[in-house]
Amino acid sequence: MRARAALEEHGIRTQVVDTLEEAKALILERVQPGQRIGIGGSQTIEQLGVVPELESRGCQILWHWRGRSPEEVLALRRAQLTADVFLASSNAVTEDGRLVNVDGVGNRVGAMVFGPPKVILVCGQNKVVPDLAAALDRVHNVAAPQNGRRLKTGTQCAVAGRCTDCDSPGRMCSVTVIIERRPQKTDLEVILVRKELGY
Ligand code: SF4
Question: What is the distance between the alpha carbons of residues 24 and 84, in angstroms, rounded to a whole number?
């Protein structure tokens, strides 16, 4: 996979695996029992099914999808920034070695680049695109419509399937972060899975 070599050239350790089980095993190898694990909003991480195994090892899971009130959701988003390990996916991975992410709140893209000393991004092959233009197109016209329908944002991408650069209160695209090289203080690793995973 070309993306793997390009990410490695950019200082981002990258593994390619065939199955979800292999991806899960790599995560479990890297996490120590009892660590605090932040999780970005991620269908991919949910699909992996790794969270119950982390909990069984005594890890504290900081996942705002589990918050029971707006206050708790916000506190979990903030806590992710000081986790020991942060798990998420990337909205797009370019074959020339860039990780492209768009976020509405910013906790997910923030934690990816500074805060948790260890970050693992798990990305299905459906996230791999040729270049930055294709990545931004994917983010707005492939990922956002699906996320918008899931979150019931009412944004045009969710309704019509195409981005209109909206000003909706439900806009999911407030911040765009393009990781071009490994952030200097973060041990950032990518696991590419030869499967369709997440949006
Ligand atoms: S800017 Fe608005 S319409 Fe475009 S992808 Fe983001 S939320 Fe959807």
Answer: 18
